[in-house]
Every structure is written in structure tokens, then in C-alpha cells.
Amino acid sequence: MAHGLSSLSQDSDTWRMNPWLRMLAAFGVAIAAALFLKVLPPLIVLVLFIGGITAVNLRLRRKVKDERKGFASEALGLKLEQEDPLD
């Protein structure tokens, strides 16, 4: 009877995994990543850090551009003027 009360479907890959176990696994991955970065030379770590920031920045810029495409004013053909045309 309790089997039907689950909000997760049985075909999902995490329906049997305990949430605390998932949290422990996430901390384990974070610790392993920190130890891996400690072994690497500082220049490679710096390149990875800057590359990650750049990737996030590009993704956020693309998201903003995609959101701007959906504005109703642009759908009507209206454009933002750089200077006042009536001046």
C-alpha cells in the first residue's frame, strides 16, 4: 500500500536511493575533486577555473539573449532607439 504513495516513478534512477546517501555521495565527489585539484599544477587549476567562469558567463549571456527574443515588443517589430527620433 505504501508503494503507491511514492511521488517518484519507479523507472527513475534515484527512486530507491536514500537522500542522505545522495548528500554523502555529493560530499565525496567534492572531496575527491578538491584532492585532484591539489595534485594538479597551479597553472592548470587556474586555467580550469577561468574556463569554468567563462563557460558560465557564456551560458548566462545566451540565456539573456534567448529571453529577449521572446519580448512582445520585438514580436510586434518595435525596436529600442539609441537616441530620441523626435528630438
Q: How are the SSEs ordered, and which strands pair?
A:
Blueprint: H1 19-39, H2 42-69, H3 72-75
Describe this structure in words.
It is a single chain. Helix content is 61%, strand content 0%. It is mainly alpha-helical and 87 residues long. It has one domain (15-75). The termini are far apart. The model has no long low-confidence stretch (mean pLDDT 80).
Report mean pLDDT, rounded to a whole number: 80
* Helix fraction bin: 55-70%
Mass-distribution shape: elongated
Work out the radius of gyration.
Answer: 24 Å
* Biggest sheet descriptor: none
Tally of strands:
0
Overview in brief:
By secondary structure, this protein is an all-alpha fold. It has helices spanning 19-39, 42-69, 72-75. It starts with 18 loop residues before the first helix and ends in a 12-residue tail after the last helix.
